[in-house]
Specification:
By secondary structure, the protein is of the alpha/beta class. Helices cover 54% and strands 13% of the residues. The active site is at residues 33, 81.
């Protein structure tokens, strides 16, 4: 009886969270931590933890599609994971290989037009894993409704270092002018896979760090970060919805801050000429893309007009 009441309560809370979510993130990146600890605490082998974690991965993919997320990146195997015991590495490689092939041939992947791609130093992986990567990518390369990135042999610092070296080499060989070293030029050299900016990083397992994960696309975009205690195999839809809510709260806070800055700037130029003021308003329109037309009165935020009337 008690377990049934608990289930009903969780479902009600899940529906409440879902109703409170408006515009979620476009790109979510997940650090799937806690598989080994989950297995140890249950008295199971490490392989069991990874196997149950793989089931959670399938669920998160469905949740993303249900909520309108357009891109999901999973931190499946880092460069640091090469330091793990050989037997554990081999099991991980077996699991990654089987899941890539399973995903590539799954009806749901093709029905939802999911494009699967690998990010990382793929050449460091065993041949069987590289073959599975090639199979998954070739089977889904024509899709663009949803992107599933699997980070394998991935390290953020190594990625940036490789891009920097490639850029310097191009400049040294005369193939790239120093003035043409732009954000786009660097991005083209990041593991040769285009990735949109990350809006939200989720990490399970209790650790509060992003572990060298997508520093260019996440930290550069100042992505929201959600840390939670459940191990990856325990990660639930409620946890995921809380993560989305964290992202939306951060976005709302940013919009409020941008409006406050706009108000301060308008006040600062209140004594300027009309031409100067209109030039400032023009710049504000560029800096405040989230402010709708109904929030501006003759180019000035509504809050400013009200404040002016009260003074």
């Amino acid at each position: 009886m008690r377990s049934r009441v608990r289930r009903l309560g969780r479902r009600a809370y899940e529906r409440l969270l879902r109703r409170n979510i408006d515009d979620g993130p476009s790109h979510v990146a997940v650090i799937q931590d806690g598989n080994r600890r989950y297995a140890r605490e249950r008295g199971d082998g490490t392989t069991d933890g990874y196997r149950e974690g793989a089931q959670t991965t399938e669920q998160v993919l469905r949740w993303c599609q249900d909520l309108g997320v357009e891109e999901l990146t999973l931190y499946a195997f880092s460069t640091e994971n090469f330091e793990r015991p050989r037997a554990e590495r081999e099991h991980l490689f077996d699991l990654i290989e089987s899941k890539l092939r399973e995903f590539a041939d799954h009806d749901q992947i093709h029905e939802n037009e999911v494009c699967i791609r690998a990010l990382g130093d793929i050449e460091r992986l065993p041949e069987r894993v590289r073959d599975a990567v090639a199979h998954a990518e070739s089977r889904t390369e024509g899709y663009d409704r949803f992107r599933l990135n699997v980070a394998l042999a991935y390290g953020g610092r190594a990625e940036l270092l490789s891009a920097a070296r490639d850029t310097l080499r191009a400049v040294d060989e005369g193939n790239l002018d120093p003035e043409d070293v732009t954000v786009e030029a660097i991005e083209r050299r990041l593991y040769a896979r285009p990735v949109r900016d990350v809006d939200l990083i989720v990490r399970t397992g209790g650790d509060e760090r992003t572990s060298n994960f997508l520093p260019w696309h996440a930290n550069g975009n100042e992505a929201a970060v959600f840390f939670c205690a459940p191990y990856w195999p325990e990660f639930s839809k409620i946890d995921f919805l809380r993560a989305i809510r964290t992202y939306e709260a951060r976005e709302a806070s940013w919009r409020h801050t941008r409006r406050e800055r706009a108000v301060a700037l308008i006040r600062a130029v209140a004594g300027s000429s009309l031409v100067e003021t209109r030039e400032v308003v023009g710049r504000l329109r560029e800096q405040l893309p989230h402010v709708g037309a109904d929030e501006l009165v003759d180019g000035v935020p509504v809050e400013t007009e009200r404040d002016g009337a009260a003074d």
